[in-house]
Amino acid sequence: MQLINTQTRFILTAVWQDLLKRKFGTFLTVLVIAVSLTIPTVSYLLWKNTHHAATEFYPEPELTVYLHKNLSDKDTNALVERIRAFETDKIDRLNYISRQQSLEEFRSWSGFGHALDILDDNPLPAVVTLKPKKAFSQPEQMLALRDSLQSIKGVQEVRLDNGWLEKLTALTELIARIAVTCTVLMLIAVFLVIGNSVRSDVSNSRASIDVMQLLGATDYFIARPFLYTGMIYGLLGSLFALLFSLMTISYFTSIVRYVSDMFTVKFELLGFTLSESFLIVIISIFLGWLSAKLATNRYIQKLSKQY
Questions:
Q1: What whole-number distance in Å separates Cα of residue 303 and Cα of residue 307?
Q2: What is the rounded distance in angstroms from the CA atom of residue 25 to the CA atom of residue 6?
Q3: What is the mean pLDDT of each run of 10 residues along the chain (307 residues)?
Q4: Does the model's pTM come out above 0.70?
Q5: Ordered alpha helix ranges (H), 205-273
Q6: CB contact set of 117 (below 8 Å; sequence gap of 6+)
Q7: CA distance 124 to 121
């Protein structure tokens, strides 16, 4: 075990020194990897913040039940109690607004108080607002609940304002698909960049590989420095990508704060959590190892066939 650790430290030191000898080429390779990784990470942050804004600012869906205006107070109260007892496992909260309350509220904010005084009868119906439980707040479930309430005798109309919900769902789904597409394309780009860089390193080290093969070194022993090179590329590229992503978020933070102040809301852009950052680094290191392994093994096997 101590021998393995010594070999690992020796190989890592040699690989790092070799990368430092060609600083400019190493920097360009890492920069390309970082930029390629920044696109999917920023796309993920865009989806994450959109989802966060949706859950924070968009109201929870509610059903508005309008009762017939020709119902007596006794019939109205009985109908409200029937609605209150209707599928209690799905309804979280019920709020009843009488015809008189509706009239007073409309008079207070509409500015048409004098015009309402001219009318002989109250034109506004009694209203019952229902808030479903979270487990039953999906659009399909809300529509089914609306249709069930509509069939109750004495209910004039049931409205579900789900237009914003459909638009928001479509927007978040669009952003999620864009993020997934960018992630796949950019991971392929990172795979190709690391693989091509490692393949170039292997090609430049052909003489030393020939000597090691003549001395009986195994393919794994020969490939280890190049595997570590790919992993270092992935590590450095992911760290720079996280830095670029945070810089992007910082750039937009002031703009978002200005817009949120105009709408009198408080909203801060979310960055990466520690677990998310760790996952990005691990995936990048694994991707660097995999691309380096494929490029190295293919080239070493090609050289072995020549002997």
A1: 7
A2: 28
A3: 64 80 86 89 82 64 78 77 75 76 62 54 72 71 77 78 64 80 85 84 74 70 83 91 87 69 62 88 91 81 60
A4: no
A5: 206-214, 219-262
A6: none
A7: 9
